[in-house]
Design brief:
about 0% strand, Squ/phyt_synthse, Trans_IPPS_HH, mainly alpha, 15 helices, about 70% helix, Squalene/phytoene_synthase_CS, transferase, Phytoene/squalene synthase family protein
């Protein structure tokens, strides 16, 4: 966390500043795409985003650790300890654990519903025991806690120009779209962790199943049935992006470039998967560095324009606008829809 970001956010306590720096490091190490997009936010809002994502990454690291049955028991114990520390931190507004301390401070500053954190932790606990999903509906119930609530946590930080409840379904959908994209990109790596996020009914509709996925992973050979299932999962994911898209225009204008950039870059992962022939069982699809640079440059240009407009209107870009009681519906820009 840079001193400039912490100063702009009004975070002065040395221990709290160090806690936010810890969260930023977690976000930078694990989330290259979203970390890049976060740099397009007003500097004063970045620490809060790093706290939210840093905590999520920390919990995810616990459940994703590979190992023996003993390691599984240790993961359960670590997650239980984190749950206790989270409950205490949210109740007291402080914690001896740096990441939880930053999260509790962010929740207090932005009035984030504590229920979102409870739902997230419930999903993390499910990952300790659930290794596959029978139906797409089952998967979407899981992604409510693991992804939709992340979008809802973010919304007060980003700010809206419509009543927050109006933007909330789109923010939740965007969180889910990002996670479904990760599921598709990481099919092979998730198999190595003993998990399959492709629903069994979707696989079966194409004559595929978990053993076939594992065979393909183990042998390095392709199968048209697996490819067809992956293609359908991509189509489902693109549908969730369409659910999310109208929400971009409901955000505070100075936040839109950040979220639009993440929207385009994550959508680019789907393009990369298709371009690579749906080979995600064997290797991770990657958005070309040049494409990432072009999208980031476009986002930066939008940031400059949005901040100039905010200053012209007498607003501080680091402060989210007040949530209106009533307001116009702002459509998503055509280039995103």
């Amino acid at each position: 966390m840079t001193a400039r970001e912490l100063d702009a956010a009004g975070i002065t306590d040395p221990a709290l500043r160090e806690a936010y720096r810890r969260c930023r490091a977690l976000n930078a190490r694990h989330g290259r795409t979203y970390f890049l997009a976060t740099r397009l936010l007003p500097v004063g809002r970045r620490p809060a985003v790093h706290a939210l994502y840093g905590f999520a990454r920390w919990a995810d690291d616990i459940v994703d650790a590979l190992g023996t049955g003993a390691a599984a028991a240790r993961r359960d114990a670590e997650l239980s300890a984190l749950q206790r520390e989270l409950d205490k931190g949210l109740r007291d507004g402080d914690s001896g654990e740096p990441v939880v301390r930053a999260l509790a401070d962010t929740a207090r500053r932005y009035g984030i519903d504590h229920g979102h954190f409870a739902d997230f932790m419930a999903a993390m606990r499910a990952d300790l025991v659930v290794t596959d999903y029978a139906t797409y509906a089952d998967l979407r119930r899981y992604t409510h806690g693991s992804a939709a609530v992340i979008g809802l946590q973010m919304l007060p930080v980003l700010g809206t120009v419509v009543p927050r409840d109006e933007a909330a379904p789109h923010a939740a959908a965007l969180g889910v779209a990002f996670q479904l994209t990760n599921f598709l990109r990481d099919v092979g790596e998730d198999l190595d962790r003993g998990r399959v996020y492709l629903p069994a009914d979707l696989l079966a509709a194409h004559g595929a199943d978990r053993p076939l996925l594992q065979w393909s992973r183990d042998t390095g050979r392709r199968d048209r049935r697996v490819t067809a299932a992956l293609r359908e999962f991509e189509a489902l994911t693109r549908g969730v992006y369409r659910e999310a898209a109208p929400g971009l225009g409901m955000l505070d204008p100075v936040s839109r470039p950040c979220i639009r950039t993440a929207f385009v870059l994550y959508g680019g992962i789907l393009d990369a998967v298709a371009r690579d022939g749906y080979a995600v069982v064997h290797r991770r699809a990657v958005v070309p560095r040049r494409r990432r640079a072009v999208v980031a440059a476009d986002g930066l240009a939008r940031v400059v324009a949005a901040r100039l407009r905010a200053r012209g209107a007498g607003r501080r870009p680091d402060v989210p606008p007040p949530v209106p009681c009533d307001g116009p519906y702002l459509r998503v820009p055509e280039e995103v829809a």
